[in-house]
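#struct-help
A.M.: can someone run this one for me? Single chain, 118 residues.
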Amino acid sequence: QVQLVESGGGSVQAGGSLRLSCVASGRSISDYTMGWFRQISGKERELVARIVTRSNTYYIDAVKGRFTISRDNAKNTVSLQMNSLKPDDTAIYYCAARHYSDYEYNSWGQGTQVTVSS
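D.P.: on it. Structure tokens below:
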């Protein structure tokens, strides 16, 4: 398994930006789909964005046009650039990895808090 550590969370006003980073160790992420999930208080954790390659990405409708996921396999990192943040984006954000041979994400970071105030 790959170990994941997120950073970059914090507090920001609505309309602001944050960049989340996730550093992987233990194995190369080149054989993994990487995802960012979030858990809003009182709700189930949801997939926000995932990346296979630069041209193969997915975003939920709520963040399309505002968030950008990217990866650097050489540095074993994945990032989530979040612009035009809204109070509804307030959540704990998790980095996750799914090996191409697996059906589920089975490596998770500890999470990083993002708080957006109005």
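A.M.: thanks! The first strand starts at residue 3 and ends at 7.
D.P.: also worth noting: The radius of gyration is 13 Å.
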